[in-house]
Design brief:
The chain has 304 residues and is α+β, with helices and mostly antiparallel strands. 17% of the residues lie in helices and 24% in strands. It has 6 helices and 14 strands.
Length: 304
């Protein structure tokens, strides 16, 4: 049987070229390439694909290497496999990158054909040099989705009475927490201009940057790009207006989030195509859960 590393590790991995996105390796790793059992119980997902560093909200975040940066907002509703809204200790939870920065590192920086991307998620705000491309939310049809799922079931189909009861429960949740109806950061667009900025190809980034777009910023290694936060890890009610996010989201009480404050850091390849699927690279070359990320490791960081 093959290991997760053997299945997940790309054939070509960059040579070390990164610096730590928090400016120091002192920050504890709280989640690795695969989620811990404790976190899986919260949202039900196994693969993480990135590294989480515990850091208090407002900690400066830096570009791990030079490249072309875009910023955006991304949030979804955590749902169960059957499409129902997932509940954690009586309350629904939100997830996603939140306020985030993505940087494309061209081949002359990463020494990899086609280049690679890094992502920095759950921020509380951006550096003044970074302008986010914010897009309108998309309203989901959660109730209609549940009906369609039930119709397609070959076995275990709910009776009309059971389905009506389930829909009543889900409608009450949506009435109590209106943000559950919407997702952010999912515009694929008919044109490049309509797309989310994190979907832009390297050619798109070069073109927009040369044209003077405010949404593409060239950054050098170590440049300030933002500040750590807890967006959009809602647990129950939201505490900021997603349609009018302030320049910096003020820190809130920890009990209002379902996860500890941290920076989500991700290194990945992206392929061209409508959704540009990505293949994540573990910068510590472990492809395991957080408990293994200690001691002297071979990394892609030049400052380790």
């Amino acid at each position: 049987m093959t290991t997760i590393k053997e299945r997940s590790r790309p054939e070509v991995v960059p040579a070390p070229f990164l610096v730590h996105p928090l400016g120091s390796h002192k920050y504890p790793i709280t989640e690795g390439y695969i989620y811990s059992k404790a976190e899986r119980r919260q949202h039900g997902v196994y693969f993480h694909g990135g590294i989480d560093y515990e850091a208090q909200p407002g900690t400066p975040v830096y570009a791990a290497s030079a490249g072309y940066a875009v910023a955006f907002y991304h949030r979804f509703v955590v749902r169960n496999r059957d499409g129902t809204i997932r509940i954690l200790d009586g309350l629904p939870i939100g997830n996603g990158f939140g306020l985030a920065v993505q940087i494309y590192h061209p081949p002359d920086i990463s020494d990899v054909s086609g280049g690679v991307f890094t992502q920095y998620g759950h921020l509380s705000g951006f550096a003044e040099s970074i302008t986010p491309k914010m897009t309108a939310p998309i309203e989901m049809d959660i109730i209609g989705s549940l009906r369609r799922r039930n119709q397609k079931r070959r076995s275990g189909k709910l009776t009309e009475t059971q389905l009506a009861s389930l829909i009543k429960e889900q409608k009450q949740l949506i009435d109590d927490f209106p943000w559950l109806k919407f997702i952010y950061g999912y515009h694929t667009g008919q044109t490049v201009e309509e797309q989310e900025s994190y979907l832009w190809t390297p050619n798109d980034l070069f073109t927009f940057h040369q044209a003077g777009s405010p949404y593409v910023t060239h950054v050098n290694q170590g440049d300030l790009i933002g500040y750590t936060g807890e967006s959009p890890l809602f647990w129950g009610n939201t505490d900021y207006d997603e349609d009018n996010i302030p320049f910096r989201i003020p820190p809130k009480d920890q009990e209002k989030r379902w996860d500890e404050p941290h920076l989500h850091f991700e290194l990945a390849y992206r392929n061209d195509g409508p959704f540009r699927p990505k293949q994540q690279i573990d910068p510590y070359d472990l492809y395991l859960s957080w408990v293994h990320y200690n001691g002297k490791l071979d990394t892609l960081f030049v400052d380790s």
